[in-house]
Amino acid sequence: MGRHSTLKISITVPHNIEKRCKLREKLGDDLKKYNFRSKVEKINRASQSSQYGHCLQVDTVNVGGQFIQTIKDVQNRSPSESSPPNSTTQHPSPIIDLTDAPELTDFYNRTTERSTLKQWILKDKTRLIAIYGLSEIGKSTLTLKLIEEIQREFDAIIWRSLSHTPTLSTLQTELKEFLAPSQPNPLPTLLDTFRHTRCLVILDDVQSLFQPGKLAGEYLSDYKDYGQFFKQIARTLHYSCVILLSWEKPREIDTLEETHRYTRSLHLKGLESEAEEILRKAELVDEENWPELIELYQGHPVWLTIIAATIRELCDGQVSRFLADPPLEKQGQREEIYLGDVKPILETQLERLSDLEKRVMVWLARQEGGIDLVAKLPDREFSKSQLWDGMRSLGRRGLVEKQLAGERSHFVLHPLWQQHCLELQ
């Protein structure tokens, strides 16, 4: 999935040739994605001296999964017709920059997750949301679909990837230039901009700010100020929303969720029945066996797509044959789960783990069933504090799950991860 979809800008101008030439002169030949809005607003400010002057209206449409901005030369509204930034009235023409967003391709419903996010953003006025989960589980796709549905509730929407690890100062400057460009009396901070204009900001690849080989959510030495910035977003009064997309949950989110009601997190897991569409597209048969296959590969859309291709190639598309073929049995090991081309993806995820997390994961893989952390635990190689720190960190990465067993919760490692961890020994 590509990281750099292109923001297309089409310009619709009056048929009058004189006006068309003037508009071209105003926009200039140096039109770029970063100065686009500032050029438009500069023209609009100049036109406001006349009650019935012309200004540029920016409309946004969705064509083939891409957001396309259209500029029209329209008649200026009088100031009395304008809505305040925090008005509940829908905004007819938000400014949108999705140049850093991946292309929206296949989307598998996610009705519950979309409904939850819309509730948080539109009803609860949540300021900071973290969506975290395994690599390529569908975080970006879900967010792009959400934007389609709520875009007119905002004045401006911008998507930025942090994969190139910009400093906080650089990011804030770039966001301010887009959200509040070229103002005669510029607002002093980005948070002031969030109060003045209702913005939706998506920060993707947040895990790039964290240190690999450390517990989840530990910032790189030069990026610790991001943690304070996220706290300010949650604690400061404004009507904007910032969404963080990450492989791992930022540490401060846990505390903010408990102390500030305007912070939420969503652990995005695999697909359930919606994943059957992947198998249907791959022309697999034996539908009665599809739920077992989906569960075996955690409903992960990319993993299932890879395995479906293998089933089509080696088993003539018959899921029953793929599941029933006897595994190569090894003394003292569980049945083998075929990983194939899924294995490099798992290894990429595990490369970020600390030594403690790896030890805890291997120990957990040796256990039968879930683990009650307050019970007496066999063959423990670490202290209680180490075990609890490791389990919390693995939970922030979505690698262990908590399940209710009777009156107590047990922590579980999925069989696929169990096998891979034991193979790495």
Description:
With about 425 residues, the protein is of the alpha/beta class. It folds into 4 domains: about 10-85, Ubiquitin-like (UB roll) (Roll), CATH 3.10.20; about 110-265, Rossmann fold (3-Layer(aba) Sandwich); about 275-325, no CATH class; about 345-425, Winged helix-like DNA-binding domain superfamily/Winged helix DNA-binding domain (Arc Repressor Mutant, subunit A), CATH 1.10.10. About 40% of the residues lie in helices and about 15% in strands. It contains 16 helices and 11 strands. The chain has helices at about 15-25, 35-45, 110-125, 140-150, 170-180, 190-195, 225-235, 250-260, 275-280, 290-295, 300-315, 320-325, 345-350, 355-365, 385-395, 415-425; strands at about 10, 55-65, 65-75, 95, 130, 155-160, 200-205, 240-245, 265, 400-405, 410. The strands form 3 sheets. A 6-stranded parallel sheet has the order 4-6-7-8-5-9, sandwiched between helices. Helix 7 packs parallel to helix 8, helix 14 (about 355-365) crosses helix 15 (about 385-395) and helix 14 crosses helix 16 (about 415-425). The two termini are about 30 Å apart. The model is unreliable at about 1-25, about 40-90 and about 330-335 (pLDDT under 50). It comes from Roseofilum halophilum BLCC-M91. InterPro entries: NB-ARC (IPR002182), P-loop_NTPase (IPR027417). This is NB-ARC domain-containing protein.
